[in-house]
Amino acid sequence: MKKNANSRGSLIQRLVLAPYSLWAVLFIVVPLFFIAFYAFTDSQMHFTLHNIRNVFTYRINQDETLPYYVMVFGRSLKLAVISTLICLLLGYPFAYRIARATPRTQSILITIIMIPMWMNFLIRTYAWMVILQDKGILNGGLALLGLGPIHVIGTETAVIIGMVYDYLPYMILPIYSVMAKMDNKLLEAARDLGCNGFGVLRRVIWPLSLPGVISGVNMVLIPSVSTFYISQKLGGKMKLIGDEIEEKYTNFDFNGAAAIAFIMMILLLVVMALLQHRANKRSVA
Amino acid sequence: MKTLSKVYTALILLFLFAPIVILIVFSFNGSNSTAVMSGFSFQWYEELFHNSNILEAVRNTLVLAVASAVISTIMGTAAAVGIFRLRSKYLRAALDTVTNIPMINPDIITGISLMLMFVFVGRFFGLSNSLSFWTMLIAHVTFCLPYVILQVLPKLQQMDKSLPEAAMDLGCTHFRAFLKVEIPELFPGILTGMIMAFTMSLDDFVISYFTAGPGFQTLPVLIYSMTKKTVKPTIYSLATIIFFVILALLTLSNLVDSDTDKAIKEARKKKKAKNQAN
Amino acid sequence: MKKIIELKNISKAFDGETVLDNINLDIYDNEFLTLLGPSGCGKTTTLRIIGGFETADQGDVIFMGERINDIPPYKRNVNTVFQRYALFPHLNVFENVAFPLREKRVPKDEIEERVNEMLKLVALSGFEKRGVNSLSGGQQQRVAIARALVSKPKVLLLDEPLAALDLKLRKDMQQELKKIQKATGITFVFVTHDQEEALSMSDTVVVMSEGRIQQIGTPIDIYNEPKNAFVADFIGESNILDGVMLRDKRVSFSGHVFDCVDSGFELKEPVDVVVRPEDVDIVPEEKGMLKGVVTSVTFLGVHYEIIVDINGFKWMIQTTDFVDVDEHIGLYIEPDAIHIMKKSEYSGMFGDYSSFSMELDEIGELEEAHLEELSELGETDASGNAESERAE
To answer: Is residue C65 within a helix (H) or strand (E), and if so which, with residue range?
Structure first.
C-alpha cells in the first residue's frame, strides 16, 4: 500500500536523497566521461583519434602479427579466465562443503576464509614472490627432497598462482552464501525423485547456485583482468593491460592511459553483458 | 568420501595460510634475507617502530579510513532511506545503476577516472598539483558509499512498514519516528556498512595509488613503493602485526556474534516452551 | 448517543483505481464498530484514513465536530493496533507501552503508574522487562493494545488484530477485547474479514464490498435482514433464489408460492429470496412444499450439512436428522424463515451450492452463468412488460 502523499514527507525524502545524488553524479558518472574525454583528446585538449588508433595499431616490431596492445589485452584476458576457472573448480566444492557443515563450523570456516582477505593483497602477493623466486622457499624445499630447482617466477604459471591465491575467497563467499540459503529439503526431494548424487548436483544444486557463481566469477575475473601488481611481482617482464595503464600514468601520458582504460571498460561491459545474458537464459530454461 | 573432503579442506586451508605463516616466520629472521632463515630476532620489529615513514602512513591510513567511513555511512544511510521511499521506477533504476558502477568497475578504472577529473579541475584552476588528502577522501567515500547503501537498504525492506506508522500514531513526528524507531531498526545494517567502509578504505591500494597526493601516503601505497625495491623483512613484521590485529578483531566479533546467536536461540526456546504451556 | 467520527462522502483512488467510493459513516461514542468485508473491499483504507495514514481524495473526516483531514496521525486523539502489532523490537514491554507517554514528556512517576495500570488491564503484569520478540503472539497482541490505550485515545482502531492468532487464542482474545472495550469505554473500530468475529463482538457491523458500504446494522439485523445478495452470501451460509413478489407477504420461488413476512414491494416485482440453511425443515416428500433429491451429506459434528437438488438448484440445508444420499425428501419453510431482498447489482452473482461438491468443472460453471444471464434477461423483460402494462 502506498505511503501518505504528505508533502512534508516527500520534502524530507528529497533532502535526504539530494547529497548522495549529487555525489554520485559528480564522482561516479562525470569521471567516466573524463576517461572518454581524455581518450579522444591530445595533451592540448584537441580532439584526436590518435590514442585510440594507437591501441589497435602500435607494434614494437613491425613484423609482429598482432598489434602490441591487442596482444597484451589477449594475454590479460587469457590469464584472468584461466585463474577464474581454477578458482571456480577449487572454490565450488569448498563452498559446498562449508554450506553443508554445522552452523558453528560454518561460521568458523567463513572466518578462516576471510582472514587472508583482510590482509592487504600487496603483502599476500609479495609472500608468493618470496616462495616462488628461484632461490626461494619452494626451491629450497625441493632441494631438501633432492629435486632439481624449477623456474616459476616470471612465468604465466606464477601470475596465475598469484591471481588464484588473491581472489579465491571472492569466489567461495558468494557461492557459499547462495548455497547456505538452499533448502536442504530440495536436495532430499531430488533424491526422493530418483536423482543420484551427481544428478542432484547437476540438476538441482548447480542451477540454484548459479547466481552465486556469476557474482563469484565477476568478483574474480574483473580484478584479475585489470591487475598490475601481481604481474609486476610474479610475472617478471611480462606485462598485463593494467601494467600498461599504470606505466602510462607514471609517465604522465594521461591520454594514453585513458584510451586503454576506455577500451578496457567497453570490453568488460561486453563480457559482463554476455555473462548476464547466459545466466538469464539458463535461469529461464 | 569423508576423508577425501577432509583432505581437500586441509589442502585449501594450507594453500590459503602457508604464505602467511611463511611471512610470520621470516619476520623473526636473524638476517635480512627473505629466503633463508638464520637465527631468531626481533630486530625487524624494532626497526619497524623506528621507521617514521611507516608510522606516519599508519596514522594517515587510519585518519582517512575513519573519515571516509563516517562520511559514507551518514550519506549512504540517508541515501538508502531516500531510495527506499522513491516512487518513480525510472529514477530508482537510474540510481541503482549508478550505485552499482563503482562495485562492478575495476578499481583501476575508478582510480583513473577520478584522477583524470581531479587533474582536469586542478588544471582549470591553475594548480600545479591537484592531488591531496581531499582528493583521496573523495575517492574513498565514493567507493565506500555503495557498500553502505547495500547494507542499509535490505534492512529497510525487511522492516515492518507499520513501525514508523505506529510511532507516528503514538505521537512522533516524521523526523522523530525516523530517529526513535527506524534508526534503531536499521542499526545493525548501518554498523555493518560502516565497518565495511572502514575496512575497504583501510585495505584499498589501487584507487589510493591513482588519487594520492605526494604529501599524503597511506600504508598500502607505502608498501607498494617499498616493494618496488628489494625488501627488508621489516615489511614482514608489519604484515605479522596486521595479521594478528585482524585475527583478534575477527575472533572478537565472532564471539559477540555467537553470543547474540545464543541469546536468540534461548529466547526462541523460551517462546516455544511458553507456547506449549499455553 | 454522541457522534464521535463522521466520514462524509469519502472517496479514494490508488493509481487511478477506486478503492473507496463515496463512503458515509457515523461512529458513535462508546460503540464497538466493525468494518467487515473481503480483502480489497476498502476496509483497511477506511481505517487508515481515520488514523491519518492516508488522505482522502474527496470528502471530509470529522472528529468530534472538527474537520481533521489534514491533521497528521501524531496530532489525532486516535490510536491504532496494527495488523502484525508493529511493536518496537529494540524496546522491552514496558518501554513499548511507555513510548507515547515519553513522547509527550509525561513525568516519570506518572509513566510508571499508567504503564503498570495498562499492563494490568491486559493481564501482562510482571512482563515489563521482557523483550517483545520473546513473547507469544497473544502476548504481543496485548502489548500492542496496552500501548495504543495508554494515552487514553477517544477511539481505538484495530486492523485485523487477531488474524495471526490460532483459532482457540483468537476466541479468547475476542472475549478479552470486548471486555477491555467495556471497561475503558473507548470507541473501538475493528477491521476484519471474519464474519463470525464481526457478529460475535460488535455493536454495529458495517459490511463493505468494492469500496462501498453495503449495509450498516446490528449483528442480528445484518444476519436476519441482509440488504442484498452480497451481504446474504458473505454473512453465514444462505440459499439465494430468484423469486417474484405476488403481493404483500406472498412470494413465489422454485415453482411454489410461499407465505412470508415481508411487504412493501411492487406487484410482481422480481426479488432475491434468502433462506438460511438452518431454517429449513426436512419432512417426508409428500408433505414438502418443495421436493428434491439429496446429492451429498457431510457430517460436521453438531449437525449434518446436506445438499439437495430441487429442480436443478442445489440447496444447502443444515439438519440434525440423518438422511441418505439419493433419498427423495420434502422441505418445509416457515414464513419467517424467508427473507426478501430487492434486486441489486449482486443478484445472480452467487449461484447455488453445486460447486460445493467440488466436482464441478469450469464448463459447468460457465453454462450456469449463461443460464442465469438468460433468466435474468427474461425477468427484466417480464418486469418491463409489467410496468408498461401498468402504465397503460
So the answer is: none
**What angle, 0 to 180 degrees and rounded to 10, lies between the N-to-C axes of helices B2-26 and A103-118?**
30
Q: Is the pLDDT of residue B177 over 60?
A: yes
Q: Which three cell numbers stand for residue B118?
A: 581531479
The verdict on C163 touching B (C-beta cutoff 8 Å) is: no
Question: Which C residues 134-163 touch A at CB under 8 Å?
Answer: none
CB A66 within 8 A of CB A74: yes
Q: For domain C3-224, give the CATH number.
A: 3.40.50.300
- For testing contact with chain C, the best of B162, B170, B275 (most C CBs within 10 A): B170
- Cβ–Cβ under 8 Å, residues C4 and C28: yes
Q: What is the pLDDT of residue C370?
A: 46
> Tens digits of per-residue pLDDT, A196-222?
777 777 788 888 898 899 999 999 999
Tell me the C-alpha distance between B252 and B197, whole Å.
19
- Nearest neighbour of B278 by CB, restricted to C83, C100, C136: C136
The CATH topology of domain A67-284 is MetI-like fold (1.10.3720)
Q: Which residues in chain A touch residue C14, judged by CB atoms under 8 angstroms apart?
A: 1-2
Through-space distance between the first and last CA atoms of chain B, rounded to whole angstroms = 47
pLDDT of residue B66: 96
DSSP-assigned beta bridge partners for residue C66: C63
Block residue for cell numbers 440423518: C322
Sketch the domain layout of chain C as residue ranges: 3-224, 238-391
The neighbour count for residue B228, using CB atoms within 10 Å, is 10
Question: What's the mean per-residue pLDDT of chain C?
Answer: 86
The model's pLDDT over C109-137, given as tens digits with 9 standing for 90+, comes to 999 999 999 999 998 999 999 999 899 88
- Counting as low any pLDDT under 70, the low residues of chain C are 355-392
pLDDT in tens, C220-269: 999 989 999 899 988 888 899 899 998 888 999 988 889 998 888 888 89
Look at residue C168 in the predicted model and tell me its pLDDT.
87
From the list C74, C89, C133, which residue is nearest B168 (CB)?
C74
Pull the grid cell for residue C165.
492468532
pLDDT surpasses 70 at A7: no
pLDDT (tens digit per residue) in B64-115: 999 999 999 999 999 999 998 888 888 889 999 999 999 889 999 999 999 9
The residue type of C72 is P
Contact residues, chain A, for B221 at CB < 8 Å: none
H-helix or E-strand spanning residue C304: strand C304-310
pTM over 0.80: no
Instruction: Count interface pairs A-C at CB distance under 8 A.
Output: 13
Q: Is A19 in CB contact (< 8 Å) with chain B?
A: yes
Of residues C80, C86, C148, nearest to B160 (C-beta): C86
Give contacts of B168 with chain C, Cβ < 8 Å. 52-53, 72-74
What distance lies between CA B171 and its chain's CA centroid?
38
Of A41-45, A87-91, A236-240, B200-204, where does the model show the most confidence? A87-91
Nearest-Cα residue of chain A relative to residue C70 = A6
Using CB atoms, pick whichever of B170, B180, B267 lies closest to residue C79. Answer: B170
Q: Which residue has the higher pLDDT, A142 or C364?
A: A142
The yes/no answer to whether this complex scores an ipTM above 0.90 is no
- Give me the half-sphere count of Cα atoms (radius 13 Å) on the Cβ side of residue A53: 6
Q: Which of C:9-68 have CB within 8 Å of A?
A: 14, 44-45, 48, 52-55
CATH classification code of C238-391 = 2.40.50.140
Q: Is there a contact between C335 and C258 (Cβ–Cβ < 8 Å)? A: yes
Beta carbons of B171 and C89 less than 8 Å apart: no
- Where exactly are the structural domains of chain A? 67-284
In whole angstroms, what is the distance from residue C141 CA to residue C157 CA? Answer: 14
Size of interface A-B (CB pairs under 8 A): 206
Is the Cβ of B127 closer than 8 Å to some Cβ of chain A?
Answer: no
